[in-house]
Design brief:
Helix content is 35%, strand content 23%. The protein has 306 residues and is α/β, with parallel strands linked by helices. Helix 1 crosses helix 8, helix 8 runs antiparallel to helix 9 and helix 9 crosses helix 10. The strands form two sheets. The chain has a nine-stranded mixed beta sheet, with helices on both faces. A four-stranded mixed beta sheet has the order 3-2-6-7. It is globular, with a radius of gyration of 18 Å. The protein has a single domain, classed as UDP-N-acetylmuramoyl-L-alanine:D-glutamate ligase (3-Layer(aba) Sandwich), CATH 3.40.1190. The chain binds alpha-D-ribofuranose. Alpha-D-ribofuranose binds next to strand 2, helix 1, strand 7 and helix 8.
Length: 306
């Protein structure tokens, strides 16, 4: 099977606690619930793209522990090609410690585990998987040299290259930008990459213009309740956010990126793809957890045409 969307990134087991409010440093609180949920930004984006209609392959690493097996089986159950998911012997799988409060806000601490073992050599070994892609998607939960290699290889192969710069820890290597067809940051990431504080549509446009000046072809800043702002050299378009009752924002950004990739791969134009991705992301915040919250294609179609 040739995948139309190839996602290179992390697979994590999310250890999720719900609490009335987030604790202060040094404080102990009672939580309301605890659960293990399949997550990881890469895997979430792969699941979103698959549930929303794309043929998807995942490139990444899991540990040789029970979580690793469960994460792989979870992706296979979503019809995702996992031939390029390597099991790293002697390593634990990635985990994310997540707290979600009653207002649907979350805090996340990620321990990379096997995700930190994904090397450029892994990508070279599975070059035919990349060659089959129309759309290539990366985030920043695997080593930066690997992400850099994938972006460059994607450009050489003339794929549609998408980077979701999450989680962000500082500026990106300058030479990456010329390889990016779409850079999709949220407000915080746009600020970290551009130096512009993003708290309005105007500031989002200013930040996006800096990122274009660095060399990205197109930037989509996701702005939560403010919607999304698309900026290219030719046009600026604001897309208002669909209104929903938020339960848990975990993986909303991942759902947007996966849905956008699937929509582009299916031939939708970028405006249609952004609207489609917004509906998918909005539906994801109405449900708890990372992968369990990601909607199916029919959910998005029903929402768009009630
Ligand atoms: O974006 C949400 C994801 O971030 C979670 O699933 C968690 O694993 C962390 O990677």
């Amino acid at each position: 099977m040739q995948a139309s969307v190839v996602v290179v990134g992390s697979l994590n087991m999310d250890l999720v606690t719900r609490t009335e409010r987030l604790p202060y440093p040094g404080e102990t609180l009672f939580g309301q619930s605890f659960g293990t949920v399949h997550g990881g930004k890469g895997a979430n984006q792969a699941v979103a793209a698959s549930r929303l209609g794309a043929r998807v392959a995942m490139v990444g690493c899991v540990g040789d522990d029970a979580y690793g097996l469960q994460l792989r089986e979870g992706l296979l159950a979503e019809h995702i090609d996992c031939q390029a998911v390597r099991t790293v012997s002697g390593s634990a799988s990635g985990v994310a410690l997540i707290m979600v409060d009653a207002g649907s806000q979350n805090t996340i601490v990620v321990v990379a585990g096997a995700n930190g073992c994904l090397e450029p050599q892994d990508i070279k070994s599975f070059d035919e998987v990349l060659q089959g892609a129309e759309v290539l998607v990366c985030q920043l939960e695997v080593p930066v040299e690997t992400v850099g290699y994938v972006l460059g290889r994607g450009r050489e192969l003339d794929k549609i290259v998408i980077l979701n710069p999450a989680p962000v820890s500082g500026p990106l290597p300058a030479h990456w930008y010329a390889n990016l067809d779409y850079l999709i940051p949220n407000e915080t990431e746009a600020w970290a990459l551009s130096g512009v504080t993003v708290d309005s549509l105007e500031s989002a446009e200013l930040a996006a213009r800096r990122l274009l000046a660095f060399g990205a072809r197109k930037v989509i800043v996701t702005l939560g309740a403010l919607g999304a702002l698309f900026v290219s050299a030719r046009r600026v378009v604001h897309f208002a956010a669909p209104k929903v009752e938020a339960v848990d924002a975990t993986a909303a950004g991942d759902t947007f990126v996966g849905a956008f990739s699937a929509a582009l791969a299916s031939g939708k134009d970028e405006d249609e793809a952004i609207r489609f991705a917004q509906v998918a992301a909005a539906l994801s915040v109405t449900r708890a957890g990372a992968q369990p919250s990601i909607p199916l294609l029919r959910d998005v179609q029903d929402f768009a045409a009630p």
